[in-house]
Structure formats: structure tokens, C-alpha cells
TrEMBL record:
Coiled coil: none annotated. Keywords: Signal. It comes from the Bacteria. The keyword Signal applies. Residues 1-19 form the signal peptide. This is PorT family protein. The keyword Transcription regulation does not apply. Residues 39-181 form the Outer membrane protein beta-barrel domain. InterPro entries: Beta-barrel_OMP_2, OMP/PagP_B-barrel.
């Protein structure tokens, strides 16, 4: 999974570099907007703060829960289809979870968002699209726990806003999970409960 995601992003980066550096006659460029550079195209790195929580009709089963503040970090590639629209796949390591009764429940995910980017101006854009993730570890406090009771595959939608100044970016995003957090209880019994992840992400990034 990790290797496949990295290969996809490397391929996208190669295509972006090729498109930006190919010597195409001006008359062809005018008729083929797919080759024009988006104001915020390129590749880069990003990272920031996660404000993670749980939501759903059955979240009260966990008692009173609070949000958990953590982090995310990763890489992105973006290619423009004209000056207004771009696609941005990312590969992120994202830490989610919640806090309950003085205990921290933490889940680490490897996530791949694929976002449509609408460039409102050269310095401002709206992002939205689907994302998938795989849980790679889970801990209660600092003690690692078995992943068997969890749904290790997650999917959802993400949307947010981003500002850009030269190569630097700053943004905020909300990712809403659709997959139930758990599939079994602590005794191995099957569950059908509506408890899902949600996270607000605030980040900075730099493109190359």
C-alpha cells in the first residue's frame, strides 16, 4: 500500500515536470488548456495540527468524550487543468482519536486524499474530494493495542480552504469519516455501531 501510493505520487510529479517543461508552440498551448500551468501546481510537503474527534449516533456508548489534538504530515502532488481547476492527490500520516475519562485513545492512519482544487485566485483555493485510509496502529495512552476489533479501512470526504503566497501554503480542512470505527467489542463479538472519525486539520506546506 505505502509503496503503491509513493509510486503514484512520483508518477504524477514526473508528468507535472514534463508538462511544465515541454516546449509546446503557443498556438497549441492556446488550444490545449490541459497543458497550461495552474497557479498552484507542483509537488511539495505539508504538515500541521489535527483536532480529532468521534461522531455518530452511538458515540454515547463511549461515555463523555473530548477531542484529541495531534498531528498529520505528508507529501502532495498537484496538476492543473487550466488556470481554474486542479487535482491534488496526497499521501499523509495522520493521527486521530479521542479522549475519555482521562485516557487518550489514539489511532494512526496512512491516508490518500484525492482533492479537486478550484483556484478562486492565484492565492486562494477551495479543496474538496474523497479520501481513503488504513489504520496502521492503535494505542490507549502509550500502550499499543490489537487492531482486530477495529475497522482498519476508513473512507470519507474532505473539504477546506487554502491560501498561497509564493511557494508557501496555509490551509484548513475538515475530513468526515464514513466507516465505523469498530467491528468487534473487546470480547470478539460483532458490532453494528455508528461511531466514526472526524478531524479538523490546520496545516502549512511548501511546494517545489
Amino acid at each position: 500500500m505505502k509503496k503503491a501510493c509513493l509510486l503514484v505520487l512520483l508518477a504524477l510529479w514526473s508528468a507535472t515536470v514534463f508538462a511544465q517543461n515541454t516546449d509546446v508552440p503557443s498556438n497549441i498551448m492556446q488550444n490545449h488548456n490541459l497543458l497550461s500551468r495552474s497557479p498552484n501546481s507542483g509537488i511539495g510537503i505539508k504538515g500541521g495540527v489535527n483536532f480529532a474527534s468521534i461522531h455518530g449516533g452511538d458515540k454515547d456508548k463511549f461515555g463523555e468524550s473530548n477531542s484529541h489534538t495531534s498531528f498529520h504530515a505528508g507529501i502532495f502532488a498537484q496538476f492543473g487543468f487550466g488556470s481554474f481547476f486542479s487535482l491534488q492527490p496526497e499521501l499523509l500520516y495522520s493521527r486521530k482519536g479521542y479522549e475519555r475519562q482521562d485516557s487518550v485513545f489514539r489511532m494512526d492512519y496512512l491516508e490518500v486524499p484525492v482533492l479537486a482544487v478550484f483556484n478562486i485566485s492565484d492565492n486562494f483555493s477551495v479543496h474538496m474530494g474523497p479520501q481513503v485510509g488504513v489504520m496502521v496502529s492503535a494505542k490507549v495512552e502509550d500502550e499499543e493495542v490489537d487492531l482486530e476489533p477495529y475497522n482498519t479501512f476508513d473512507y470519507g470526504l474532505a473539504a477546506g480552504l487554502e491560501g498561497q503566497l509564493d511557494r508557501f501554503r496555509v490551509g484548513a480542512r475538515y475530513a468526515h469519516g464514513f466507516a465505523d470505527l469498530r467491528k468487534e467489542d473487546s470480547d470478539g463479538n460483532s458490532l453494528d455501531e455508528d461511531i466514526k472519525n472526524g478531524v479538523i486539520q490546520v496545516y502549512v506546506g511548501i511546494s517545489f
